[in-house]
Design brief:
By secondary structure, the protein is of the alpha/beta class. The chain has a single domain, classed as YbaK/aminoacyl-tRNA synthetase-associated domain (YbaK protein), CATH 3.90.960.10. About 25% of the residues lie in helices and about 25% in strands. It contains five helices and eight strands. The chain has a five-stranded mixed sheet, with no helix packed on it. The protein starts with 5 loop residues before the first helix and ends with a strand. The model has no long low-confidence stretch (mean pLDDT about 90).
Length: about 160
């Protein structure tokens, strides 16, 4: 199957190999998504948007069900207070609906932090821009496609 989103357009323009996976039923858990994709839960990358202040946002890429440690993230971005972006903000800032967010083809430039555990995987799944559909690719290629990012340890 092919889809046409900012994610796939960017990957195609850069000639980066990937494949599309389409779920046949609603995804309820990381374990379900991973099993259907023949992956481990930590191979599924969540693209999480955080609001630093009224105008500033950062994206954190986390492996699977791992939680973002708030204290570590606050220290990393140099803020004593931050919040998760609201669904309307996620769409406005990224151009993607929650459940389909990708660090590729973002509507708005922002700092991107990649948890180092993502790069330990043989293959990852990221948001494709369409709910229920994932882009599967080599994590080394993710570093190629993103303009600016920082690899961090958020453990």
């Amino acid at each position: 199957m092919t889809i046409n989103t900012a994610v796939t357009q960017t990957l195609d323009q850069l000639d980066i190999p990937y494949r599309i996976f389409v779920h046949t039923k609603k995804v309820e858990t990381f374990e379900q998504a991973a099993a259907e994709r023949n992956q481990k839960p930590e191979q599924i990358v969540r693209s999480l948007l955080f609001r630093l202040d009224k105008e500033s946002f950062v994206m954190v890429l986390m492996a699977g069900p791992q939680q973002v440690p708030w204290g570590a993230l606050r220290r990393l971005v140099g803020k004593s207070r931050l919040t998760m972006a609201k669904p309307a903000q996620v769409f406005e800032i990224t151009g993607y609906q929650i459940g389909a967010v990708s660090p590729i083809g973002l509507k708005t430039e922002m700092p991107i932090y990649i948890d180092e555990r993502i790069l330990d995987q043989d293959e990852i799944s990221i948001g494709s821009g369409v709910r229920g559909t994932a882009v599967m690719m080599d994590p080394a290629q993710l570093k190629t496609v993103l303009d600016e990012f920082t690899i961090v340890s958020l453990t």
